[in-house]
Amino acid sequence: MIDQNEIIGLIAAVCTTFAFIPQVMKVWKTKQTKDLSLRMYSIMFIGILLWLVYGILIDSLSIILANVVTAILVGTILVFIIQGKDTK
């Protein structure tokens, strides 16, 4: 059974992780990234990967799940930003 702390972590993970979905959808739809910061998303992606490693080390389901999904979302935005810079 998941303990009360993990439940709070999972709820927090859903809120913070899914906050990236509107940005991903907008970038996917418009293919526009000129106003997005490559540096910010790169640093964010590194931080997410470090949180993922931390979650694995402490065996925290909420941290692991949140950061796997967030890494995919932020990674998607990063790919669009990098592709957009190549075409200019």
Describe the protein's architecture and organization.
- The protein is mainly alpha-helical.
- It contains four helices and no strands.
- Helices cover 82% and strands 0% of the residues.
Describe how the helices and strands are arranged.
Elements: H1 4-18, H2 21-30, H3 38-58, H4 61-86
Helix pairs in contact: 1-4, 2-4, 3-4
What is the compact description of this entry?
With 88 residues, the protein is mainly α. Helix content is 82%, strand content 0%. It has helices at residues 4-18, 21-30, 38-58, 61-86.
- Biggest sheet, open or closed, and with what strands and sense? none
The CATH architecture can be named as: Up-down Bundle
Specify the CATH class.
Mainly Alpha
Number of domains: 1
**CATH fold category name:** Monooxygenase
Mean pLDDT: 91
The number of distinct helices, counting runs of at least 4 residues, comes to: 4
Radius of gyration: 15 Å
| Number of β-strand runs | 0
Task: Provide the helix percentage.
Answer: over 70%
Derived from helix and strand composition plus strand pairing, the structural class reads mainly alpha
Q: Tell me the span between the first and last alpha carbons.
A: 52 Å
Question: What are the low-pLDDT stretches, counting only 5+ consecutive residues below 50?
Answer: none
Proportion in β-strands: under 5%
The coarse silhouette is: elongated
The SSE order reads HHHH
